[in-house]
Amino acid sequence: MASHIAGYPRMGPKRELKFALESFWDKKSSADDLKKVAADLKSSIWKQMSAVGIKYIPSNTFSFYDQMLDTTSMLGAVPPRYGWNGGEIGFDTYFSMARGNASVPAMEMTKWFDTNYHFIVPELGPDVKFSYASHKAVDEFKEAKALGVNTVPVLIGPVSYLLLSKPAKGVEKTFSLLSLLPKIIPVYKEVVSELKAAGASWIQFDEPTLVLDLDSQQLGSFTTAYSDLESTLSGLNVLIETYFADLTPEAYKTLTGLKGVTAYGLDLVRGTQTTELVKKDFPKGKYLFAGVVDGRNIWANDLASSLSTLQALEAVVGKDNLVVSTSCSLLHTAVDLVNEIKLDDEIKSWLAFAAQKVVEVNALAKALAGQKDEAFFSSNAAAQASRKSSPRVTNEAVQKAAAALKGSDHRRATNVTARLDAQQKKLNLPILPTTTIGSFPQTAELRRVRREYKANKVSEDDYVKAMKEEIKKVVDLQEELDIDVLVHGEPERNDMVEYFGEQLSGFAFTVNGWVQSYGSRCVKPPIIYGDVSRPKPMTVFWSSAAQSMTKRPMKGMLTGPVTILNWSFVRNDQPRFETCYQIALAIKDEVEDLEKASINVIQIDEAALREGLPLRKSEHAFYLKWAVHSFRITNCGVKDTTQIHTHMCYSNFNDIIHSIIDMDADVITIENSRSDEKLLSVFREGVKYGAGIGPGVYDIHSPRIPSTEEIVDRINKMLAVLESNILWVNPDCGLKTRKYDEVKPALNNMVAAAKQLRTKLASAK
After folding, report:
1. Secondary structure letter of residue 434 according to DSSP
2. CB under 8 Å to 85, separation ≥6 — which residues?
3. What pLDDT was estimated at residue 599?
4. What is the DSSP string of 227-276?
């Protein structure tokens, strides 16, 4: 019985790639140094899978930034502003597309389906000249082969690539991206031909858009594409991989009818109904790559349950045609549990990171083949039983409080217009008030102090002193820049979710459980294993200290319940909304304590609210109802004069704008600049928004410093569709990943732009 891994984490067990990338970007190391780190990581991954016994090992799932960007490079679809003149795409062009440079902005970045991973959105139009411009897929296959490992090269499929793209600036929004299919297929044919010549026997096309709500024309594009590729694919075994949700019956019929395709990879963890489609009708002689090991969470697989599922499928597809697989790439989980030296043994026994999931896949394959490892299965069963019965998982008081939430929608008593009037009397802010989103640059010294405090090498008094000095520096800088509503800069926080999770019950934490978010940015999601509550205040001390340093309003900075949920590894033994309501009650306690401490502006970030939206439209309403309700729970008890902000970033918000309005926040700051002001189009189309709103005026994920004139232009576009009395001026997101020599001039230009327009608005009265 064969085994397959759909993809693997790239950063390395201790973020080796992250540090190599940042060193290269800072010009502290060479391209050869970066490539050497990458080669070592890939070699280690391939050899590890080979040693475990995995038959179908992926290549070309490694990336220096993003696999969609790799595909853009492969197709030579470089936007003209980057000045690429043909030839093999090198690091300069590649990283300029990802991060921007001194003269041009980066390409748009958005969430990969409903995950916390971000991809670089291709910008396409009728005039794009596609050409084979990056040989990475073939080079990696040869690289693995030289190590004695025969891999399955993985490509983003042509239809999903186009469906996940957007019309370039200046191209009609109605332009059919799928009309480009005949132009990109020839490049795919070149890549496939080279892979065949290099000795590949299998090839994997990732077509995850098959799980979306697609119309007949879109589904027909898959048929067209693979019919066109059929002759080139002849002689290869072709796997089409889908993931993250069920296939509709129409999509399943399309998939299983594709010409030249040998195998179908299905997510049977999130796609529970897809199993029934397989049982009803599976093409004879084809392979099923059954994704029964969860690629998106860190819980140990229930091996007995998975084996039962596989045995039922084996009866349908045939013993020789069933391959045990992961539900999706393991990119979305942490790398290796062996690096976790601080987790207690009980919780550790409940978990499986990427390296352990590889072992689980192989153990299931061997069990199907009659070589069941009884000791391994017995240990797994004991861990499953331990988790179900452990007293640390359940808190009756928390469950009772969450159950009592039913029957109320938890809205503030006064409407937002009246609240904004009351808040303005108290805060006395100018028109077009300026603020930032929360975090300020985290210097190496700051990280050192925080790291040493956690390791008990720095006393609590010295730690508090160092943090207060950093807060004072950030406050003084904001006052010097003349920003209106200040933040304390969050020097005490390494990660916005981890920070809160460490202070809430029901959470566990890892030392090296890093997961890639985008580029070199990694996050370390907390693990929610039990019922959630707040034992004591979490941020009041730092917010009060910061407010005492200034007469200007100081924002209390919290992470909202939906974002904590969506950016954690969540328990899978109860519905997600029940866990979210528990977190909402904990954050509500914190909001009310901040208000008592005279913090008059409180930001409750819901950066990941859109991210959790189910992929199927039929499931949207239920999710949005409980997600928006959870946010309202957090602040339903505050006074009218307390201004509640929220923040959202890097997703397409236009389709949920009415739910955002229903959150009933006083002010929302939201990503706007990197997506070509896509957000503003919803207001041009007539949506009325009465609360305060701050569409981001510049992209903080690029080192590029915007000019005052550029920001003025952006604000003017906002003023064309939004009233000046509700508009705020702010960056797209927090400033943690930037350097002070980037942040100071950018914020200075932002404030100058706001003042320039205030003067203009005043003179127009």
Report:
1. B
2. none
3. 98
4. HHHHHHHTTSEEEEE--SSPPPHHHHHHHHT-TT--EEEEETTT-TTHHH
Q: Using an 8 Å Cβ cutoff, are 8 and 45 in contact?
A: yes
Q: Which CATH number fits domain 416-764: 3.40.50.300, 3.40.50.12240, 3.20.170.30, 3.20.20.210?
A: 3.20.20.210
- The predicted-structure confidence for 382-431, as pLDDT tens digits, reads as follows 999 999 999 999 999 999 999 999 878 899 999 999 999 999 999 999 99
Q: Is 521 annotated as contributing to ligand binding? A: yes
Using one digit for the tens of pLDDT, what is the confidence trace for 657-676? Answer: 889 999 999 999 988 766 55
Cα–Cα dist 730/673, whole Å: 11
Residue 721 structure tokens = 């569709």
pTM for this structure?
0.91
Which one, of 520, 599, 523, lies nearest residue 563 by Cα? 523
User: CA 665, CA 644: separation in Å to the nearest integer?
Assistant: 6
Q: State whether residue 194 is helix, strand or coil.
A: helix
DSSP 638-669: S-TTSEEEEEE-SS--GGGHHHHHHT--SEEE
Q: Which helix (H) or strand (E) holds 629?
A: helix 620-635
**2-389 is a CATH 2.60.40.150 domain:** no
User: Using one digit for the tens of pLDDT, what is the confidence trace for 320-356?
Assistant: 999 999 999 999 999 999 999 889 999 999 999 999 9
Exposure of 346 in the CB half-sphere (CA atoms within 13 A): 11
The rounded distance, in Å, linking the Cα atoms of 603 and 555 is: 6
Q: Is 116 annotated as a binding residue?
A: yes
* 438 marked as binding residue: yes
Dihedral sign from CA coordinates of 378, 528, 447, 737: positive
Q: How many CA atoms lie within 13 A of 7 on its CB side?
A: 27
- Residue 370: both structure tokens together: 């009659």
Q: How confident is the model at residue 175 (pLDDT cuts 50, 70, 90)?
A: very high
Residues of the chain with CATH 3.20.20.210: 2-389, 416-764
* Residue 580 assigned as binding residue: no
256 touches 288 (CB < 8 A): no
Whether 410 sits among the annotated catalytic residues: the reply is no
CA-CA distance, 333 to 513, in Å (whole number)? 8
Which of 4, 332, 629, 701 is catalytic? The answer is 701
3-state class (DSSP) for residue 324: strand
